[in-house]
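Morning run. Coffee first, then this:
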Amino acid sequence: MFIVNAEFQIEGEKTLNIVVCGKVIPASTVTIELDPNTKRMVRKGVTHELDPAAASAVEEGLRLSEKHGGAVTLVTMGISEVTIGIRNALAMGVASAVHILDDAVAGSDTLGTAKLLAAAIKKQPFDLVICATESSDSYSGIVHGQLAQLLGIPALTFAKEVTVDGGKITIHRQSENGYDVVESMLPALVAVSSGINEPRYPQLKGIMAAKKKEIKVYTAADLGLAADQVGEKGAREKVLTIGRPPKREAGRLVTDEGEGGKQIADFLAEIKVI
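And here it is:
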C-alpha cells in the first residue's frame, strides 16, 4: 500500500488533506506462484501494477482535491518491485509517495498492515482517508475497518458516491433496498466500492513528471513499530496449508424427456443446495 501527494488550492474554501491507502499487486498478466516454504504469494522478480481497486480510490481522492483543494497523499507497503505501481499513481497526478519498505513487514496480517498504514498516516495532518473496499489479490476487506479503529475516526464503507460539504462528508451506499445515505463529520475514513468512478489514464506529461517526483521510504522502525508488532512475528493469523483449487469436474447433462425438472431437483438435493 502507499502514500501519494497532490496539492490544489481553491480560493476562499478550506482545503482538504486527503490520504489514499492503496496496494500494488502482481500484474494481471502474471501467473501467480505460491512459495511452499513461506506459504505466501511469490512477489520478488514479478511485474507489479497499481491495483485497479486502489486506482479508483486514487481517482476519487484526486477528484475531491481538485474540487475542494488540498493535498492527496497515497500510502503503500511492499517490496521494491512495487515502485512501478507507485510511479503509475504519481503519473495520474499525485505529487509524492511514501513507500513502507522493510523485510521485517513480510507476512503481516491485516492488523499488522493496518498498524503500519496508521503510523504512516499519522506522520502528516489528514482530514479524510480513502481506501478501496478490498484489494484484488487477497480480498480480505477488513483492513479499512481496522485502520479507522487505530486512527480513532469513523468508517463509512461501501461508498458508491462521495461528497464533501465543509466539515461534513456524505456517502451513498448501495443496499438491497436501494441506497443508504451515510454522513459523518471529518476527519473520517471512506472505503469506496468498485465502479465508483473510471480512473484516469496517465498522460505523457504526467508520466514524465512522475520520474522526478520524490518517493520517501520508511521502515517499521522509522514508524515506531517493533519487529514483533508486524510481519510474520506479529501476525495473529497463520496460514496452515496452501494449494491450488481442484480442477472443475465436467457438468452433468440433463435431457428433458418429461422429468427434467425432477432430475435437476434431485441433483441439487444431492449436492445439498436444497
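The radius of gyration is 22 Å. Good start to the day.
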